[in-house]
Amino acid sequence: MAQPDDMFGDEDYPAYTMGRAAEIVGVSQDFLRRLGDAKLIDPFRSPGGHRRYSRYQLRLAARAKEMVDEGTALEAACRIIILQDQLDEALRVNETLRRNENSTAD
Length: 106
Description:
This protein is mainly alpha-helical. It has a single domain, classed as Multidrug-efflux Transporter Regulator, Chain: A, Domain 2 (Orthogonal Bundle). It contains 5 helices and 3 strands. It has helices spanning 4-7, 18-25, 29-37, 55-69, 74-105, and strands at residues 16-17, 44-45, 51-53. A hairpin with a 5-residue loop joins strand 2 (44-45) and strand 3. The N and C termini lie far apart (40 Å).
């Protein structure tokens, strides 16, 4: 777990309760549960079993809310977001590998 000084900059630190997360994103707590059921987000569980959300997870939830508000089915929105994130990660990895190849070729 991150140290107190590091928590504010940690995108993955589970800082938000379910109620606060729902309020921030502008959705119901049930909507957040359904995002978990659809495997978009997997909230951290406190020792008491309460869900805790990170800023990264809140951004994913906000993206899903936007898509659902535009008429996309929840499950489809979650799948699209997951695939977009996988593509973004693959592009980052490829760019890093390309930079490393170029730096060793010099």
